[in-house]
């Protein structure tokens, strides 16, 4: 097997702290690797004047998978170009439209399939002469179809239930979304499709998360619901994600951000990042056995060295030590 090329984008805040632990674990795996670390986010704005320098983008296009920490922070909040713009552009350039966000724990095992390169994040925006500021939500039916098919396929491989979430009682984009998703149901007779409105689904996620399995939804709703799902399954320190396109490199990153409130203290929970590494091994490199080994090591570390956010006292590096120690047992 040829060398696997992983581009690593640690980013800002706790991004580099948690990424360092994932890199330690990655290097301990029996894989021939080329790890290419690149500037991205606020640090790239400072060093190169833009959050996604052309060399970083070129490296990401030409690799097997991108491992990403987090970007952003108060330092750049007022900047003309924000770190987050680099993240959005990278997702768009790689066309990673399917963002899988599992939420597992406390009897809950659900996954949100979030559309990632359309909707309110990418529609026309601007300021009118009278000072009105606008962002617009646009979807083409083909964008809905491709993400909905991902949802159906995932549902078919799990419980056979798919919940499509929209705001069809108000929005035209949601009415089209619902029509397109319903129109595909005939292609997946083994999947039971239901529709939900985002406001009540948000409440039910808080009160009854264990009743959910696969949720498919548009970009903005998926962003918000995935933080809710993280909240009911142990917090943002645990929530991983995989952003996939149709064959090109995927991006594997935690759901959380750069956590400026704890950055620099070495106490961030690297679980979300390590679980994202497991998703990279599974979906990005086609190594499910190694993915399971990393998940098992993370579960062991969570027992032995819990971090502050989940009620423990271990540092980020101590968690990584525990994961590595148990990974040697599992793999080696
Ligand atoms: P955040 O996710 O960074 O933090 C929210 C809360 O969760 C904070 O209290 C933080 O300390 C805690 N938290 C997050 N990750 C943790 C971890 N691994 N271990 C322990 N605690 C953790 O959200 P925010 O504060 O709203 O955003 C901060 C910055 O991050 C903003 O600039 C935002 O745009 C950016 N952001 C980036 C990404 C990304 O790069 N993918 C995602 C979300 C937010
Ligand atoms: C996420 C983040 C990003 C998003 C931001 C940082 C652009 O919140 O990955 O959930 O909204 O998609
Ligand atoms: Mn988010």
**What is the arithmetic mean of pLDDT?**
97
Largest sheet: 10 strands, mixed
The outline comes out as globular
Order of helices and strands: EHEHHEHEEEEHEHEHEHEEHHH
The set of bound ligands, ions and cofactors reads:
nicotinamide-adenine-dinucleotide, 3-isopropylmalic acid, manganese (II) ion
Total beta strand runs: 12
Helix content: 40-55%
Distance between the termini: 19 Å
Count of DSSP H/I helices = 11
Structural class by helix and strand composition:
alpha/beta
Radius of gyration: 20 Å
pLDDT below 50 for ≥5 consecutive residues: which ranges? Answer: none
- Spatial order of the strands in the main sheet? 2-1-3-12-11-4-5-10-8-9
- What fraction strand? 15-25%
Please give a structural write-up:
- With 332 residues, the chain is of the alpha/beta class.
- Helix content is 43%, strand content 20%.
- It has helices spanning 15-28, 42-48, 54-61, 83-94, 141-157, 172-184, 198-208, 219-231, 271-284, 288-304, 316-331, and strands at residues 4-11, 33-37, 65-70, 98-105, 108-115, 125-127, 133-135, 161-166, 192-197, 214-217, 240-244, 250-254.
- A ten-stranded mixed β-sheet has the order 2-1-3-12-11-4-5-10-8-9, with helices on both faces. A two-stranded antiparallel sheet has the order 6-7.
- α10 crosses α11.
- The model has no long low-confidence stretch (mean pLDDT 97).
- Bound molecules: nicotinamide-adenine-dinucleotide (NAD), 3-isopropylmalic acid and manganese (II) ion.
- Nicotinamide-adenine-dinucleotide binds next to α4.
């Amino acid at each position: 097997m040829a060398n696997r090329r992983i581009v690593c984008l640690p980013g800002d805040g706790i991004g580099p702290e948690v990424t360092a632990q994932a890199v330690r674990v990655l290097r301990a795996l029996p894989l021939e690797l080329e790890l290419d670390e690149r500037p991205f986010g606020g640090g790239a704005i400072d060093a190169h004047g833009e959050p996604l320098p052309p060399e970083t983008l070129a490296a990401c296009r030409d690799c097997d998978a991108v491992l990403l920490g987090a970007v952003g922070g108060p330092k750049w909040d007022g900047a003309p170009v924000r770190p987050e713009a680099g993240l959005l552009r990278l997702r768009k350039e790689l066309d990673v439209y399917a963002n899988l966000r599992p939420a597992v724990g406390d009897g809950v095992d659900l996954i949100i399939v979030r559309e990632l390169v359309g909707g309110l994040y990418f529609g026309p925006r601007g300021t009118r002469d009278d000072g009105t500021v606008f962002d617009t939500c646009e979807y083409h039916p083909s964008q809905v179809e491709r993400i909905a098919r991902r949802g159906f396929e995932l549902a078919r491989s799990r419980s056979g239930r798919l919940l499509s979430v929209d705001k069809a009682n108000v929005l035209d984009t949601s009415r089209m979304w619902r029509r397109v998703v319903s129109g595909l149901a005939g292609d997946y007779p083994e999947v039971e499709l239901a529709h939900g409105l985002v406001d009540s689904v948000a409440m039910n996620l808080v009160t009854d998360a264990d009743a959910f399995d696969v949720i498919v939804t548009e970009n903005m709703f998926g962003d918000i619901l995935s933080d809710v799902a993280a909240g009911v399954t142990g917090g943002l320190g645990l929530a991983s994600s995989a952003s996939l396109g149709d064959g090109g490199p995927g991006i594997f990153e935690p759901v959380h951000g750069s956590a400026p409130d704890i950055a620099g203290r070495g106490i961030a929970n690297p679980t979300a990042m390590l679980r994202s590494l497991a998703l990279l091994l599974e979906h990005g490199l086609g190594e499910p056995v190694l993915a399971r080994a990393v998940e098992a090591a993370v579960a062991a570390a969570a027992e032995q060295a819990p971090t502050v956010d989940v009620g423990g006292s271990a540092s980020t590096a101590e968690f990584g030590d525990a994961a590595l120690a148990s990974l040697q047992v599992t793999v080696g």
